[in-house]
Design a protein that fits this description.
This is Beta-phosphoglucomutase. It is built from nine helices and six strands, in the order βαααααβαβαβαββα. It is an alpha/beta fold and 217 residues long. It has a six-stranded parallel β-sheet, with helices on both faces. Helix 6 links the parallel strand 2 and strand 3. The longest helix is centred in the middle third of the chain and has 19 residues. Bound molecules: 1,6-di-O-phosphono-beta-D-glucopyranose and magnesium ion (MG).
Length: 217
């Protein structure tokens, strides 16, 4: 049977959180307050606009709409500088192996990310050709935990939501997958991602036998 496998990007395919962190931290410092790694954790899966809103609130700062836009551009320009230095060595463990196994088994493969830079990142790490469809932050109006991004991804690969499996590292993303009636697989810690149907630390823990079971379910 042909099922749909939908991958989040940051935290599942590559670790871009460290680059988001550097860029947001420099932005916060330029405005005179700090930004910690613990706070960065809370921005996983969160859109760029919502991230800046949270950071400004943590720094007890308010800005005009024009300044807000300028800060978004400043952060993204720095972030893109880091992205443009990425290469395929930054792909997380066993991701290409799983993508190739799914392809060999004629499964639908889609990306479902909040990032507006998703295509650029997939091109840099040379994985773009592995995806049948890419749905990212440019294609959705409602952020995770709203299921919109995953429902759009399912329709782009012509799969019924109940026949889709989502790989996610963020709590909001797992909730979005559950709300879309898809099977949710958390990539990360079980304590954090306890709402997922299954949780693995990374793809090296996911066997071909387990993926075959998902396909045949
Ligand atoms: P951008 P994902 C998310 O990616 C990141 O986890 C989140 O930290 C970031 O703010 C968001 O993308 C937007 O990214 O600024 O590139 O549009 O995990 O949904 O793949
Ligand atoms: Mg993520």
């Amino acid at each position: 049977k042909r099922k749909g496998f939908i991958f989040d990007l940051d935290g599942v395919i590559v670790d871009t959180a460290k680059y988001h962190f550097l860029a947001w931290k420099n932005l916060a410092h330029s405005m005179g307050f700090d930004f910690t790694e613990t706070q960065n954790e809370q921005l996983k899966g969160v859109s760029r606009v919502d991230s800046l809103n949270k950071i400004l609130a943590w720094g007890n700062t308010t800005v005009s709409e024009d300044k807000f836009q300028a800060l978004m551009t400043l952060k993204n320009d720095e972030y893109l500088g880091y992205i443009d230095k990425m290469n395929d060595s930054e792909i997380l463990i066993d991701v290409p192996k799983v993508l190739d196994f799914l392809k060999q088994n004629n499964q639908g493969i889609a990306l479902g990310s909040a990032s507006k830079n998703a295509r650029r990142i997939l091109e840099k790490v040379k994985l773009i050709s592995k995806f049948d469809a890419i749905v990212d932050g440019n294609d959705v109006s409602k952020a995770k935990p709203d299921p919109e991004v995953f429902l759009n991804a399912a329709s782009a690969i012509t799969c019924d939501p109940k026949d889709c499996v989502v790989f996610e590292d963020s709590v909001a993303g797992v909730q979005a997958a559950n709300r879309a009636n898809m099977i949710s697989i958390g990539i990360g810690s079980r304590a954090v991602l306890h709402e997922a149907d299954y949780v693995f630390n990374d793809f090296s823990e996911i066997s071909e036998g387990f993926i075959k079971e998902l396909i045949n379910q």
